[in-house]
Amino acid sequence: MISGTKTETVVAGAYEIGNRLIGRNPFEIERLFQEMHRSFFRGGPINGTIVSGIEMALWDIKGKAFGVPVYELLGGAAREKIKVYSWIGGDRPSEVLEPAQDRFDRGFTAIKMNATSELHYIDSYEKVEEVVERVASIHERFGSKLAIGVDFHGRVHKPMAKVLAKALEPYHPMFLEEVVLPENEEHFKEVADSVAVPLATGERLYTRWQFKNIFNQGAIDVIQPDVALCGGILETKKIAAMAEGYDIAVAPHAPYGPIALAATLQVDSCTPNVFIQEQSLGIHYNKGFDLLDFVKNKDIFQYKDGFVDLPSKPGLGLEMDEAKIEEIAQEGLVWTNPQWRNYDGTIAEW
């Protein structure tokens, strides 16, 4: 689940909120979303994950009842196919050139990689040079034929964010992601003013209200709402529509399992300012199983020349392997993100 270290809390909350919906009309998705969202204490990653999961299930029910993909109920297709990018490297990226070559040979025209590992408030230029060398090696081999998204992952504080962004500018990144943490959003403008590179953020934000400051500030060029966190399919669609009014692109966050990705592809299909989609096949976070392991109709995530077809089956378009899910569930899926420390023992951002 999105909440990472709060998996059991999310499950308990899903029962608590879900029980209130038993017997209700599942077609009234907007009304049910408003009821789930509008508590006295609203939002947050735990509640956002719960509401998003239930909301996606409601759309799956409605789409299957009408025999159409969800995007047909949200205005219909806005495109013929969806461009995707592939991750390379890992949490602490080192060798990236050969994985980049592998993705290029498989038809991808865009990749993404983590920029750096632990980085202190002020850190050594040696670490900056290591990042630049990795990106430069890819750019020198492929030129503009392979776009590179560089994810700062909120690991970089403002002083080093400016340095790192400026150092990467000559290699024309597709975007720089989360150059600072969203709670330091006032610094996005400072970085944006220093480089001619698109900046991206949004994976940790939930509902359209948390995106308001981003839109009004005008420093971010690409928003990355997560359909499994921000409130679900319709909320992602609303956030993207707000972004369109500000001439901002959308590249939804989706490094998780098949349900979240399938739901995101529904939004992509009917949203014109989506320009590329993250996908998690083979991503370094997957340990022991991968995206396709839980899906019977594996063709839904077949990529060709860096694109995926629009979904065609009703609802979210998935046929889940319930036996496999039950088997894995017995192991207990309680994931905790790594705990990192800087060279002096202080806590580092992961």
UniProtKB/TrEMBL annotation:
**Keyword hit for Repressor:** no
Which Gene3D superfamilies did the record assign?
Enolase-like C-terminal domain, Enolase-like, N-terminal domain
Q: Which SUPFAM superfamilies match?
A: Enolase C-terminal domain-like (SSF51604), Enolase N-terminal domain-like (SSF54826)
Q: Could you list this entry's UniProt keywords, alphabetically sorted.
A: Lyase, Magnesium, Metal-binding
Q: Which InterPro entries match?
A: DgoD-like, Enolase-like_C_sf, Enolase-like_N, Enolase_C-like, Mandelate_racemase_C, Mandelate_racemase_N_dom
The superkingdom listed in its UniProt entry is: Bacteria
State one Pfam family annotation: MR_MLE_C
What does the record give under GO molecular function?
Answer: lyase activity; metal ion binding
Q: Which residues form the Mandelate racemase/muconate lactonizing enzyme C-terminal domain?
A: 93-198
- NCBIfam families, A to Z: PRK14017.1
Name-wise, this protein is: Mandelate racemase/muconate lactonizing enzyme C-terminal domain-containing protein
Q: Which organism is it from?
A: Enterococcus devriesei
